[in-house]
Amino acid sequence: MLTILSEIGKLTSPGLWKDPFKSFQWVGNLTYSPSDGCDLEVYTENNDLDIYHLSGEFELIKWNGFDGVPCTIIDAFCQNSTEFHKGGQRRTIFGNHMLYGIHIDSKTQPIARGLTFRSPALVRWSQPKNISVTWNGASNIVANYSSPPPVDFCLKGIADVIMWWSASAKACPMSDGEHRIVEQSAIQFSFLNEKSFNELLDIISAMEFYANFASNLFAGPPECNLLIKHDDMTVPRVLLHRGWYGKEHDHDPRSEYFRFCDVKENLSYSLSLWFESYKKHRDAVQLYSLIRTRKYDIQSELLYLARCVEALARDLFPCDEPSKAEDRKIGKVLRKALRENFDTAFQEKFRDRICRKLVGLGGTSFQDRLIDLNKHLSGSIREVCPKFDSLVPIVAKWRNDLTHCNPREMLNQDIFDELCLCRDLLKMCVEAIFLRLMSVSDDRAARTLSHHYAWQFRKTLPKVLASRLS
After folding, report:
1. How many domains does the chain have?
2. Which of 154, 169, 187 is where one domain is finished?
3. pTM, two decimal places
4. CB 157 within 8 Å of CB 283
5. DSSP 3-state assignment of 61?
């Protein structure tokens, strides 16, 4: 690295250095040395660059341009200190390997999604770019690539980087330690057989579909009254509700809408990446690395989307809890259906029932609503949805994980089950809303989803259930 620095520019101090490097194309050098700390140097053409030498803890890296497009660094963390900070949260670093990631993003042009550094690394360009990656580990493996990579060139974790280098015929042979990394990754993922892999792909594709569907609900047609004008801008009506996402003085529906769009795009991107990567390579270690790398972000984004969907449901049906008499009627229909015919159609109505109950219950948080709902479910309903009892602690565990993330926890059967529950949770909310929208679509006045018609629909729900199950 000293040789590279002497050729490109002078290191003015151990802490901070600048140089425009106008004669260079953009080049990223990612290095790791257990004894010297972690260094990341990014050289860009015609852009100012501030880089902190990463030794021990660090706070921020600044990069002021990507092909002329303003960018912000969303995620940056490194091993070699036991903790790092992201959004005010403290997290523990995994293992003895470097774990370093930057996501450089822009809200202005698609190319801004281009560069993602996540290390053990995930690198992706929306357009081919020149790249030079230098990895100096315990075995001093060095690989440099200066030719334009494919559009979807990816490095997905230590094991994948090593395997990709080996396949490129430009890398040094793997050491025993690196072979152990590959074998360890394969062993940790071995609980998934071919059937489980297909189930996992179904989960991934389902989550992507429901995330897109949730987004479409927010951007629905004006006659559904989901969008309104706010400060000369059209935003989803649900985002104007105060209290479900923060304090009143923090309220900014436009920024919240942008956040929702970003979360949805990031989630769809990640899920698509998982799905396409596995379809293309059928490689257990690759899929393992992808899921491990994005696990906590995926959980956070899915919980946020579920929160948005729940808020939308509350907005569409802001009525009080139905009467006990109506509750008894619905319970009678449910018990009859349980005795006579438990089919897919009934499962859909049951999800609607759960979500409707969820929407009507009091409580300020999604977790509180789940706990309250858990108390109200009858024995018959528990037979229909045995996994629902485990949903409350799972949500609580995720919330704790998001506050105190522990990357030592690799993908295992528990995480696989959590993904299933997360998929089911989002599906439950979205299908319930979908059924409600369809149920009132024949009535022009009801399509406004006003308070009055929402209440009328809830009153007639037992009849709707009975007619559709008959």
Report:
1. 2
2. 187
3. 0.24
4. no
5. coil
